# Entry
Amino acid sequence: MASVSIKGTKNGLLVTLGQGELASLLAELEERLSGTASFFKGGQVALQVGQRQLSVEEIGHIKALLAQNEVALETVISEAPGTRAAARHLGLETKRSPRTEPRPERRAEEDFAEPFVPLRAGLSRGEFGEGALVRCTLRSGQVIRHPGHVVVIGDVNAGAEVIAGGDIVIWGRLRGTVHAGAAGDDQAIVCALDLAPTQLRIGKRIARPPEGKPRRRSIPEIAFVQEGRIIVRSWKASR
Amino acid sequence: MAAMVITITSGKGGVGKTTATANLGVALALLGKRVVVVDSDIGLRNLDVAMGLENRIVYDIVDVTEGYCRLRQALIRDKRVSELYLLPAAQTRDKTAVSPEDMVRLCDQMRDDFNFVLIDSPAGIEQGFRNAIAPADEVLIVTTPEVPAVRDADRIIGLIEAEEKGPASLIINRLKPEMVRYGNMLTTADVIEILAIDLIGIIPEDEAIIVSMNKGIPIALDDANRASLAFHNIARRLLGEEVPFLDIREMPNLIERFVRFIRQG
Amino acid sequence: MRILDWLFGQRRPSSREIAKERLQLVLAYDRVKISPQLLETLKDELIAVISRHVEIDREGVEVTFTRVKSRSRLIADIPLLGARGQRK
# Structure
């Protein structure tokens, strides 16, 4: 099991250090970076370390290691105040980690008797296979389940469901229920030409459209998780 | 608390089972009872829409019977009325996903926590219907005063008697007083005479019901509506109260009486 | 004149009455599998048997089904014109 993960995000690379000894984690990181150096070259890095306490020296060491591989450490994301202070000392930006576990008392909506645990898709993280392309209108009662990304060219009507391990792209109207990142991946996104789902789920989050407000505009929109909440933005604004 | 399980069925589709279930659920909850309404129409669920809860569904009845989640996780609480819950049907499965035994087990699980379990049956007499009546302590049959609906109601009554379910009582829905007055619609008395079954309620035709369905706000939440009053009266009768039937004017008006008088003369 | 027809004229069966009659017929078949044809045959034979002994209004004979507390009944309504034996 990899305790170092490297992900591409909108703002550059996100490097997450998991459990384990720092030295071995750094060795692993170095190995992964050198293996794919040209791919990451010139990028900015956000380093996510969770609760881990890191000293100024240790952060400096990581920064140097990244610099050797021609990527620049910009931000340190941590829950530990000491680590954030050390990072600031080196002139780096700091952030707290977004919550990754749902708090039982504050779910997306209070009306579920118990917290939502995604388990229906029977998928595990990292199992993203190939994307699936669906070229038809999904009608009530129809369901698409796929471990990877799903692209629907057509409408998803109310009563239809799309459940994907990865992202969901609807080239049409989305009226039904979709679940992106169904294995619990909060990084997944949903976008649609007209995003008006009955219910929208990403990872462990659930959102419903606001009540009593009929939509007037229908513009392409994208939904994603930010700081533990599902946010919907117009496609234009999100770029 | 030992819940009474009541199945709402009809044989024919489109006569108002779902509307009746949603509104009786609301009415019983407003009378202070703990109520769960169960949609047993797997593959064609609609009770969620009637109650305006469709966008809150995460788990459904099939997830419960197949062990994907616990019963409590699948129950959706209605925010407008306290102690009213919905157990939604699965939309992406078919009737065979649940067996009559599953339904009995599921209802037994709920008996301790609720006063009433109302089951909205699918139309027809196939497995969906069998599932719906399997756990029933009482059956409410919904009909409209029309030939096909009454005929199907009769068939259902026969099946329920054969299964020794019941007692069954009748809800006559969508009665149009105007049409009855002019002799263009079966009267309540006609339907009762033909079906020979106890009457528990008469719901007058009301456009407000369509509006309420469109909005997902059961009419029983509106205390100034006649159809709503009719549902509240049924709820009270279910609790054992003696409530007189609404005066839905079936009596001829003065001119009509005059005409009849002359004709007989 | 139509108003007068309406006031004094022969009453035509209302759609309610038609509905009730059709229902009773259809249910008779549904409940005990007696078809309208069989009902007609029954009616004809009843008329034949009874009219051997008493004079009846053949046009007025009605054979219907009703149901009282889950039991089906066959009801024959046979208007008499007067017993033959008595006239002689």
Remarks:
- The radius of gyration of chain C is 17 Å.
- Residues 21 and 64 of chain C are 9 Å apart (CA to CA).
- Chains C and A do not touch (no CB pair under 8 Å).
- The first helix of chain C runs from residue 2 to 8.
